[in-house]
Amino acid sequence: MIMDETQSTVLSILQDLTGEDVSSNMDTNLFDEGILDSMGSVQLLLELQNQLGIEVPVSEFERSEWDTPAKIVAKVESMQ
């Protein structure tokens, strides 16, 4: 599987925050699996801002749009 830069950065951030490598299953529900929680979401948004320049106000964070690695990558790409 060839990853683009955005996908690899998102997966790297997720792994740093959670200690989990989710690259093998991009459709894993991060919240249902207990990999990501509300605090982790805030940290994820901060890291996306730091590393990719993506501005996502927490008030606009819709959990259902960010609950899998694939959705996070798509969301980030749509904002770049």
UniProtKB/TrEMBL annotation:
UniProt keyword terms in alphabetical order: Cell wall biogenesis/degradation, Cytoplasm, Ligase, Phosphopantetheine, Phosphoprotein
PTM characteristics: 4'-phosphopantetheine is transferred from CoA to a specific serine of apo-DCP.
Compartment annotation: Cytoplasm
Modified residues annotated as O-(pantetheine 4'-phosphoryl)serine in this record: 38
A Pfam family per the record: PP-binding
Every Carrier domain range: 1-80
Pathway named in the protein's UniProt entry: Cell wall biogenesis; lipoteichoic acid biosynthesis
Single Gene Ontology MF annotation: ligase activity
Taxonomy, superkingdom: Bacteria
InterPro entries listed in its UniProt record: ACP-like_sf (IPR036736), DltC (IPR003230), PP-bd_ACP (IPR009081)
Similarity-based family: Belongs to the DltC family.
Known function: Carrier protein involved in the D-alanylation of lipoteichoic acid (LTA). The loading of thioester-linked D-alanine onto DltC is catalyzed by D-alanine--D-alanyl carrier protein ligase DltA. The DltC-carried D-alanyl group is further transferred to cell membrane phosphatidylglycerol (PG) by forming an ester bond, probably catalyzed by DltD. D-alanylation of LTA plays an important role in modulating the properties of the cell wall in Gram-positive bacteria, influencing the net charge of the cell wall.
Matches recorded under NCBIfam families: dltC, PRK05087.1
Protein name: D-alanyl carrier protein
